[in-house]
Design brief:
Elements lengths: L7 H10 L1 H10 L2 H11 L4 H17 L1 H14 L2 E6 L2 H14 L4 E4 L3 H5 L2 H6 L3 E4 L2 H9 L15 H11 L11 H18 L2 E4 L3 E3 L4 E6 L3 H7 L3 E7 L3 E2 L2 H16 L6 E6 L12 E7 L3 H5 L14 H4 L2 H6 L10 H12 L16 H5 L6 H14 L5 H14 L2 H16 L5 E2 L6 H4 L4 E2 L7 H10 L5
Parallel strand pairs: 1-10, 2-3, 2-4, 4-7, 5-8, 7-10
Antiparallel strand pairs: 5-6, 6-9, 11-12
Bound molecules: iron/sulfur cluster.
Length: about 475
């Protein structure tokens, strides 16, 4: 999927005006947040677990080449094959080649954000009958839309919209008026069951890749990944290189963090460990197992200021706690990774010049960092991206000159005090209340009123007066 051409502000405005989207977001609001909070209360050692998660990811990234070799050897020993893809195009090519060589006709897919990242769906759908098996992904596939959340891809859809989609695409299978959620789930299950049985190829992502056993770890709450990976004769897993962990011990720590942070569960309903293709004495499982490991800019991140972003385990907690994401949903971010993690990852993968609005879509309130299970300093990285945009002259010239002027003034305290004092006096003469339009503050007054200062002086003057009168505030 390409980054949308329309700029972030236009997409955000459209999202704010979309009544259906606002209704769906209001319904989802709080669900993930409350469940995560409860799950963490149940585990007093959660902060230690977060620190362990950070250490595991940093250690693995430090020795990534060693763990990559180890994973490949163990995958091969278990009967699997590794395909290394330097970029999105080679990842798509690797998957298409495997499908063609297997003479595939039907493909069943479990959710994979790495697949979304490399535009796998469009490439597959052009050649093969391809069906998503995760319920949320299935809904947005019918709607021909990208996901709007990394763990709840159809969170932007209301029940009414889903009913309409099913009525259109299921050819009256259940038909009729607005249906309850369990009825919609059963209807999708019936349709998908036939697709599972008819598929030649199953494609999944990977939550973790265990180096010392060559194991793929997958979590779902629907069990669809298990059917997608065990019924078809070929299984292809696609994942970023940062999904590696040294051993099962580290994988189990990460699984505990992931379930609690993503959905507020102690453990995800289906946690699957896949080691190799079907062996001679086994009754089920695929005849072939392929792992397509994607770099797509990750090696570059290993060596730059954004390396810690490679710790991300795609739990979605940062977006669930983000006031900007909560107001506009995921599509406004223009690419597959929304919210605070997307504000960093999209510029990394697509280029800062194509996504410079995303780091601005942040109030720097810090909640994302507080909830991140691997302690990624998201506000720090977002601020760093703003600096980079300034240095690389991506930030508009007027903004850059404004910031430069402010910095010049702020380094001269006496002049700063005199200028702000004068501005305060002039503005306070305009009256009380607020102004609707102000020169140089058009972006502010377009959306809200600008309060006029009172006659009590600037903050500094008021503070000094309080100090003198013995009040400590
Ligand atoms: S940045 Fe942290 S909180 Fe956000 S998805 Fe990644 S791991 Fe989860």
């Amino acid at each position: 999927m390409a980054v949308s051409e329309a700029d972030f502000r236009a997409r955000a405005r459209k999202a704010l005006d979309d009544d259906n989207l606002q209704a769906a977001l209001a319904q989802a609001k709080g669900g993930f947040v409350d469940k995560r909070a409860d799950a963490i209360l149940d585990l007093p050692a959660f902060e230690q677990l977060r620190e362990r998660g950070r250490q595991i990811k940093d250690h693995t990234l430090e020795y990534l080449d060693t763990y990559l070799d180890e994973f490949e050897q163990n995958l091969n020993s278990a009967g699997g094959q590794l395909h290394y893809a330097a970029d999105a195009e080679s990842a798509r090519e690797a998957v298409l080649r495997i499908c063609r060589e297997a003479h595939a006709r039907q493909i069943i897919k479990a959710k994979t954000m790495a697949g979304e990242e490399v535009g796998l769906n469009e490439a597959l759908e052009a050649e093969f009958e391809t069906v998503e098996s995760d319920l949320g992904e299935y809904i947005i596939q019918l709607a021909k839309e990208p996901p709007s959340h990394i763990i709840a891809p159809a969170v932007h859809k209301t029940r009414g919209e889903i009913t309409e989609l099913f009525d259109t695409h299921h050819h009256g299978r259940s038909g009729g008026p607005l249906r309850e959620t369990p009825d919609l789930v059963n209807e999708a299950r019936g349709v998908l069951r036939e697709k599972f049985l008819g598929a030649d190829i199953g494609i999944s992502g990977a939550n973790f890749l265990v180096a010392d056993t060559g194991t793929i770890t997958l979590v779902t709450n629907e069990g669809n990944a298990d059917l997608s990976t065990s019924l078809p004769r070929v299984h292809i897993a696609i994942a970023g290189v940062e999904k590696l962990v040294p051993s099962m011990q580290e994988a189990s720590s990460m699984l505990r963090l992931l379930a609690r942070s993503a959905t507020g569960q102690q453990i995800t309903a289906y946690t699957t460990f896949i080691t190799g293709a079907r062996r001679e004495d086994e009754l089920d499982g695929p005849e072939e197992l392929h792992v397509v490991l994607i770099d797509n800019g990750r090696s570059r991140m290993l060596g730059n200021d954004y390396r810690e972003m490679l710790r991300c385990i795609r739990c979605g907690a940062c977006m669930n706690h983000c006031p900007v994401y909560s107001a506009i949903g995921g599509h406004a971010y223009g690419w597959v990774y929304p919210g605070p993690m997307g504000a960093v990852l999209t510029p990394m993968f697509r280029g800062l010049d194509k996504s410079s609005d995303l780091p601005q879509a942040c109030t720097l309130n810090g909640r994302c960092q507080t909830v991140c299970p691997v302690k990624i300093r998201l506000p720090h990285l977002i601020r760093q991206l703003r600096d980079d945009a300034f240095e690389q002259q991506i930030t508009p010239a007027t903004t850059r000159w404004g910031i430069r002027g402010w910095a010049w003034l702020a380094r001269r305290p006496r002049l700063y005090t005199a200028v702000t004092g004068l501005a305060q006096r002039l503005m306070s003469r305009l009256g009380r209340g607020s102004v609707r339009r102000a020169p140089l503050a058009g972006a502010w007054t377009a959306g809200r009123d600008l309060p006029l200062p009172g006659r009590g002086g600037t903050f500094q003057q008021q503070w000094q007066a309080r100090q003198r009168s013995g009040q400590d505030g």
